[in-house]
Write a structure and sequence with these properties.
7-stranded mixed sheet; binds adenosine-5'-monophosphate-propyl ester; 5-stranded parallel sheet; alpha/beta
Length: 654
């Protein structure tokens, strides 16, 4: 366990006394209106999940609902299904001409794909993949901007049983290479570029660099998105244009009847040590979990327009742009760019234009909107909205209230949804037609989910006591492991507390059993909702020839939630002056991607260490956040930290 204190103080949250009941009009039309659903699910969780599984199509029925040999779960073993079939073919009879994806590019271009269109494109791309030699079980890497080809490529993979591994377009060439090597991807799907704040992201160029060191990749399929705005090279034989392949691809493609536990995707995420780990999700359970939670939490109806603003490169986009909404036959908006292009009202313009009913975004975005001011949403008609959601990090009550008032106009419930890449689906969240909301609390575990707050010894703590958030019963979309690393899986999630899944989060419950999430308790930091391991940033820094040692911490940031601060010691003969700070920041961007750029770098001749040589990050956090230094008695040399504190204060004041 790391020496990390939770981010949010329990005391401050306990002062939050505001309550919001579901508006009567909302309650009356809600998907879930009967509170007995919690008890029904608790009494017979397997029967409960099976009832949702039965709403979907199975080529052959499951033999059992769950096989649970800790830490390995099999959901619906023996059953055969296909998640792309369920997301597309299943809807064709009733929804062939219904919009599935309403897409808007950052420059303002638009595309609407009906379920019929999406089905056709997915079938064709499935045939393209097959022609490129991709077989069931082969991994396909996807490094695309937020364009329709991204869900098309993912669903085509799922259709033929080729696990996808999507890499967020903001990651560097090196990060992409490492992920492709870990997954041994056979094909890479990318674009020439993608639009971001009026500029082109050089995706294909990054791919060229990445593929150099990724020998498993046989072909690179390139979508033409940026066109003349960027010059790219196509390597003969290896690189192929998406549109050329699609022009020749046959229309007909039968979805593969896959084992319920067939590997659906690998998604890399940061842990406490080592390189990002490949979180493994499989077909049947993930399908049932994302299907049911989308329906309940977003209260989705056939006539709704849903918009999740996440990038599909993260789990939120996997579960609540690609799989959950399409499994429900929903209409959804997908947007390529940033919220401030060309102006700071872009999100609100999109909501007005497409009459979005349900919006799902992140606290960091909400805090940014707060900073920009309410005049931007006020420019637009947001009356179509009826429900708001948030995800990715704890939401502070002020941001919650701002969202509720300025975006939801006090009409729309706010669902604060807690979950993780590993959980695959939302686990703690209000049910918008049933739950009394408290700003800043994710409220209660969903029906069928068992969560607990425990102390160091794994015992449940009383109300208002802080502790560790654990999950005590398997759930359908849970991770099935870390790709290629069963030991790390066991160690990371199942060893800290016997018979429980350890989330890495701190939490407390109040007297009514509501959960208040307190942030990570390990060496993972959450920058603007993006998860980054301190270890990764430290490794990137020490990779620079001038750096001897580095210690990275998360510091409070009023918009991003947390930001990265690095304490660096340089090798003999290197000077901290000049552009050393910028050089190192750039180096981290090159190694990992812009999302990992440190906010602050402080040079120091020594780092505070215990006598056994362990860097005491807790003290670094005290320094960076201006607190009185905690216990320094275990330090090898207590003067180091005092000197560092003085230096830090001088620099901060200068
Ligand atoms: O610390 C929790 C925080 O985000 C972590 C998971 O990050 P990631 O795997 O990238 O997935 C993010 C999107 C699902 C969690 O361990 N987190 C996520 N949602 C919330 C949250 N913290 C508090 N409240 C939330 N609603």
């Amino acid at each position: 366990m790391a020496d990390r204190a939770p981010e949010r103080t329990i005391e401050a949250l306990l002062l939050e006394a505001r309550r919001f009941d579901p508006p009567e009009a909302f309650r009356r039309q809600a998907v879930l209106q009967d509170p007995r659903v919690y008890d029904q699910a608790a009494k017979d969780p397997e029967g409960f999940w099976a009832s949702y599984a039965r709403e979907l199509h199975w080529f052959s029925p499951w033999e059992r609902v769950l096989d649970w040999t800790l830490p390995y779960a099999k959901w619906f073993p023996g059953g055969r299904t296909n998640i792309a079939y369920n997301a597309l073919d299943r809807h064709l009879a009733a929804r062939r001409t219904k919009a599935a994806i309403i897409w808007e590019g950052e420059p303002g271009d638009e595309r609407v794909l009906t379920y019929g269109d999406l089905h056709r494109e997915v079938c064709k791309f499935a045939n393209v993949l097959k022609r490129l030699g991709v077989r069931t079980g082969d991994r396909v890497a996807i490094y695309l901007p937020m364009i329709p080809e991204l869900p098309i490529a993912m669903l085509a993979c799922a259709r033929i049983g080729a696990p996808h591994t999507v890499v967020f377009g903001g990651f560097s060439a090196e990060s992409l290479r490492d992920r492709m090597n870990d997954a041994k991807a056979k094909v890479l799907v990318t674009a020439d570029g993608g639009w971001r704040r009026g500029k082109v992201l050089p995706l294909k160029r990054n791919c060229d660099e990445a593929v150099e060191g990724a020998p498993s990749v046989e072909h690179v399929v390139v979508v033409r998105r940026a066109g003349d705005a960027i010059k790219i090279d196509m390597r003969e034989g290896r690189d192929l244009w998406w549109h050329r392949l699609m022009a020749e691809a046959p229309l007909a493609n039968e979805a593969e009847p896959l084992e319920s536990e067939h590997l659906l995707y690998i998604l890399y995420t940061s842990g406490t040590t080592g390189k990002p780990k490949g979180i493994v999700h499989t077909t049947g359970g993930y399908m049932v979990g994302t299907y049911a939670t989308t329906k309940w939490v977003f209260d989705l109806k056939d006539e709704d327009v849903f918009w999740c603003t996440a990038d599909i490169g993260w789990v939120t986009g996997h579960s609540y742009i690609v799989y959950g909404p399409l499994l429900n036959g929903a209409t959804e908006v997908m947007y390529e760019g940033t919220p401030d292009f060309p102006d700071k009202d872009r999100f609100w313009a999109i909501i007005e234009k497409y009459r979005v009913n349900v919006l799902y975004t992140a606290p960091t975005a909400i805090r940014t909107f707060m900073k920009w001011g309410p005049e931007f949403p006020a420019r637009h008609d947001l009356s179509s909205l009826r429900l708001l959601g948030t995800v990715g990090e704890p939401i502070n009550p002020e941001a919650w209230i701002w969202y509720y008032e300025h975006i939801g106009k006090k009409r729309c419930p706010v669902v604060d949804t807690w979950w993780q890449t590993e959980t695959g689906m939302i686990l703690i969240s209000p049910l918008p037609g049933l739950t009394t909301l408290k700003p800043g609390s994710a409220t209660r575990p969903l029906p069928g989910i068992a969560a607990e707050v425990v102390n160091e010894r794994g015992q449940a703590v009383g109300a208002k006591e802080g502790g560790y958030l654990v999950l005590t019963r398997p759930w359908p979309a849970m991770l099935r492991g870390i790709y290629g690393d069963p030991e790390r899986y066991q160690d990371q999630y199942w060893s800290r507390f016997p018979n429980m899944y350890f989330t890495g989060d701190g939490a407390k419950r109040d007297e009514e059993g509501y959960f208040w999430l307190l942030g990570r308790v390990d060496d993972v930091i959450n920058v603007a909702g993006h998860r980054i391991g301190t270890y990764e940033v430290e490794s990137a820094l020490v990779d620079h020839p001038s750096v001897a040692e580095a210690a990275v911490i998360g510091i409070e940031h009023d918009v991003k939630g947390q930001a990265i601060a690095a304490f660096v010691t340089l090798k003999e003969g290197n000077k901290p002056g000049g552009d050393a700070v910028d050089t190192l920041k750039q180096h981290v961007v090159k190694k990992i991607g812009a999302l990992a750029r440190p906010e602050q770098i402080l040079f120091t001749s020594e780092l505070p260490k215990t006598r056994s040589g362990k860097i005491m990050r807790r003290l670094l956090r005290d320094i960076a956040e201006g607190r009185v230094l905690g216990d320094t008695t275990t330090l090898a040399d207590p003067t180091v930290v005092e000197a560092l504190k003085t230096r830090y204060e001088e620099e901060a004041g200068s």
